Amino acid sequence: MIHVEHVHCGYPDRKVLHDVSLTIGSGEFVGILGPNGSGKTTLILALSGVLPITAGCIHLDGRPLTMIPHRERARLIAVVPQDVHVPYPFSCWDVVAMGRYPHQRRGGQETPKDEAAVRQAMERTDTLDLAERPITGVSGGERQRVFVAKALAQDTPVLLLDEAVSAMDVHRKLQIFSLLKTLQEKEGRTVVAVLHDVNTAAVFCRRLVFVKGGRIVADGPTREVLTPDILEDVYETPASVYRVPGRDGVQQVFFAPSRWDGVSGGG
User: Fold this and answer.
1) 214 burial via Cβ count (<10 Å: 0-12, 13-18, 19+)
2) For a Cys-Cys bond, which of 78, 138, 146, 169 suits 151, CB 3.0-4.6 Å?
């Protein structure tokens, strides 16, 4: 579904991605991981067409991304950014309803179909109780759930998420990723998620792509690439990987400082 070939990308003052090639099949759940400044967000911006590439090409369903009109692209790809500043007190319902714009006629009013899609998205993300509250008056985690709902209301086959659960507590984070997993497995959605939480990625993503220094350094099935050698190379920190008993071979990672001087457990 998504084919990235020898892509270079960046900003006026610096290059970020260097010769990145990647193919993501329809219905995959892919985790993008790496240290700060490695190019993860830049990759999401390039995949969504927001940030122009300087070399190479990106194809969506065999079509060059740059040749797909913006409105049509918005019916194919929904993006949940890491953080969104909303300066105006729109109701959370209205924010989610913005996801329906690509499906409406220009200047069109909300239809019963739009309303049903918004309600379903908010029910799925457990945000319906926030519907009348201003987006400026909710917590960071609640705001992130509202923007996940907006992406679901957009009803696209591809979901791109950039640290979309970073402000959520453990329960909400697992709730949202369980929902994404259901969308992938039951509805065939393609999910590409940037995460810092390696262990969450290990639970939900069948494939991991590690990025460092603007290049892909490892890409493959989670069980094959989630290794101490790769993790230590990517994060420059000692790592141990173990399987969780009774969890169908799910792997988890323990990072530890290279020196334990002055480090002690709680009392």
Assistant:
1) buried
2) 78
Instruction: State how far the alpha carbon of 128 is from the alpha carbons of 96, 119, 153, 161, 189, in Å.
Output: 10, 7, 13, 21, 23
Q: Environment class of residue 88 by beta-carbon count within 10 Å: exposed (0-12), middle (13-18) or buried (19+)?
A: exposed
Per-position DSSP letters for 221-259, written without gaps between them: EHHHH--HHHHHHHHSS-EEEEEPTTSTT-EEEEE--S-
27: left (phi over 0), alpha (psi -120 to 50) or beta: left
Name all contacts of 258-262 with Cβ < 8 Å and 24+ positions apart. Answer: none
Tell me the pLDDT tens digit for each residue of 213-244.
999 999 999 999 999 999 999 999 999 999 99
Q: Kindly report, residue by residue over 155-196, the tens digit of the pLDDT.
A: 999 999 999 999 999 999 999 999 999 999 999 999 999 999
